[in-house]
Amino acid sequence: MNKLCINIDWFEIFCYEPADFGSPESFEKIGFRCAIRDYGTRIYKQMFTVMADGTPWIEVRREPKSIASEGGILNDGACSIRLVNRSCYEPDAVKTLYNFLSSLGYHYKKKSICAISRVDICLDFKSFLTYDRPEEF
Question: Is the pTM of this model over 0.90?
Fold first, then answer.
């Protein structure tokens, strides 16, 4: 029997942090340890990883370099939050992330159809279903 396993391999959302929360220090005040990167991204000034029980859980990218209040494109408080790869394989990972962020006051743009900015889905299998050789897949 050929067994298939379909999983989320990358999950990232775009949302807005509350005015009084979002920094690594704010996560640390509620009991998380944060690993702060020395660099940001092309879009965000700050990037850090939030640890849960000593294990990387989510990556936070925040403080947009181009904000609307200064003539830029992103609204103040815009951020990107990504489940680290290992977290994607935990039971109910997306639901847990949603509940956690909602409890802290993170929100999505009103009238937005979806706040997911990237999701990768992987398919693991023991053999190719209809092909004899991987080159034919």
Answer: no
